[in-house]
């Protein structure tokens, strides 16, 4: 009875132990399968070690590994990385401390070198950037530092790309995000900029005033020239009008054939005008007035004596005949032509009077008082 129970217990224990061993074997197989199959995602590289030594680099895709022999040392992202470094104090050549923020664009080109050549390539790039930046900025003053960003970026990129090439990293671009000078220097720079803008504003204002004065002077000059031209034209027109009026009076007088009595009457009409002004203390009477008055007296004496005719052999006009019916037609022409003709005749008359030594009668009609026909200007 006891022997049979022992046999049953031993068989049960063997079954349980076999089940456990089978389960462990299945678990081992599952773990081995999991560790032997690797799927590498895109833009990622896996560095594989076999028994502690570098074996190969896995590209994106499905790969099989030897379980418990091959292992993944590192997973490297081969995309371009953007790293922003904290502000770094840098001293310029004129002993000013400026704070510079740097942004670095880099990419891993060789995952093996990035894993085995340097422990932490991000820290190495940061320290190399700081030292290179201090060397570059140390040879520039503040003004050059603020205005030479492209030059600084080019020098940094050249030094970093050369140093990080053996690490399997390519530096694509280096940018200075900000350059912050001390607060006191910023205040001085603002004052300098304000003074420069004030200077430019003053120069622009002076240029505007200058242009305004030049334009005003040009306008005054042109206005004076136009006014002078207008005055000259007005004087010419006035002279032409006066010449035409003189020519009309001259023509009317000769058409009317005046006698000494009419001239004496005109003298008598002018005497009140001579005495009209209270400032006149001395009267200037022409010497011809005595002769004109004598002719006027003789004319009235002849009329009172009943001669009924005009003196000096003048013909008596029939009754009912108009005083101007027997006059020749007017000779007025264009004012310019008439003025030229009058000037010519006046010069000719003046030359004749000067050569004769006396002026008898009208200068343009010396035979008017001799009883000849009235003077008629030539037709033009």
- The structure class reads alpha+beta
Query: How many strands, which pairing sense, and closed or not: the largest β-sheet?
Result: 3 strands, antiparallel
Radius of gyration: 65 Å
Number of strands: 8
Percent range of helical residues: 40-55%
Distance between the termini: 182 Å
Task: Assign an overall shape.
Answer: rod-shaped
In N-to-C order, the SSE pattern is HEEEEEEEHHHHEHHHH
Mean pLDDT: 75
Quickly count the domains. 3
Strand ordering within the main sheet: 3-2-5
- Which percent range describes the beta-strand content? 15-25%
Specify the number of helices. 9
List low-confidence stretches.
306-317, 319-325, 357-380
Would you give an account of this structure?
The protein is α+β, with helices and mostly antiparallel strands. It folds into 3 domains: 2-75, no CATH class; 78-181, Band 7 domain (Tetrahydropterin Synthase, Chain A); 187-274 and 326-380, no CATH class. The chain is built from 9 helices and 8 strands. The chain has helices at residues 2-36, 111-116, 121-137, 142-147, 149-164, 183-256, 260-274, 288-304, 335-356; strands spanning 37-40, 44-50, 53-58, 61-64, 70-77, 80-91, 97-108, 169-180. A 3-stranded antiparallel sheet has the order 3-2-5. The protein has a 3-stranded antiparallel sheet with strand order 6-7-8. The chain has a two-stranded antiparallel sheet with strand order 1-4. A hairpin with a 2-residue loop joins β2 (44-50) and β3. The longest helix has 74 residues, at 183-256. 10% of the residues are buried. Residues 306-317, 319-325 and 357-380 have low confidence and may be disordered.
């Amino acid at each position: 009875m006891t022997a049979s129970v022992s046999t049953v217990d031993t068989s049960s224990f063997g079954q349980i132990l076999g089940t456990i061993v089978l389960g462990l074997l299945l678990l081992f197989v599952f773990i081995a399968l999991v560790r032997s199959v690797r799927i590498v995602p895109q833009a990622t590289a896996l560095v594989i070690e076999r028994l502690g030594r570098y074996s190969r680099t896995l590209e994106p895709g499905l790969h099989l590994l030897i379980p418990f022999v091959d292992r993944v040392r590192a997973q490297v992202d081969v995309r371009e990385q953007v790293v922003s470094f904290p502000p770094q104090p840098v001293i310029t050549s004129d002993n000013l401390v400026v704070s510079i923020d740097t942004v670095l664009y880099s990419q891993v080109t060789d995952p093996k070198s990035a894993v085995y050549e340097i422990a932490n390539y991000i820290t190495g790039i940061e320290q190399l950037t700081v030292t290179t930046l201090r060397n570059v900025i140390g040879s520039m003053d503040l003004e050059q530092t603020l205005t030479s960003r492209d030059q600084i970026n080019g020098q940094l990129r050249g030094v970093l790309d050369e140093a990080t090439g053996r690490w399997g990293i390519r530096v694509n671009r280096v940018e200075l995000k900000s350059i912050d000078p001390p607060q006191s220097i910023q205040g001085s720079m603002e004052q300098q900029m304000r003074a420069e803008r004030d200077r430019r504003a003053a120069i622009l204002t002076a240029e505007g005033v200058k242009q305004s004065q030049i334009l005003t002077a040009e306008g005054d000059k042109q206005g004076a020239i136009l006014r002078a031209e207008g005055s000259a034209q007005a004087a010419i027109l006035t002279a032409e009008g006066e010449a035409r009026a003189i020519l009309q009076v001259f023509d009317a007088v000769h058409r009317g054939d005046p006698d000494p009595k009419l001239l004496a009457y005109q003298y008598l009409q002018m005497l009140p005008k001579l005495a009209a002004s209270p400032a006149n203390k001395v009267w200037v009477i022409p010497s011809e007035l005595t002769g004109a008055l004598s002719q006027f007296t003789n004319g009235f004496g002849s009329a009172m004596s009943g001669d009924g005719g005009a003196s000096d052999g003048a013909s008596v006009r029939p009754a009912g005949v108009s005083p101007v019916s027997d006059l020749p037609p007017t000779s007025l022409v264009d004012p310019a032509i008439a003025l030229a003709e009058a000037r010519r005749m006046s010069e000719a008359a003046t030359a004749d009077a000067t050569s004769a030594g006396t002026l008898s009668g009208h200068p343009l009609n010396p035979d008017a008082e001799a009883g000849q026909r009235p003077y008629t200007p030539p037709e033009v």
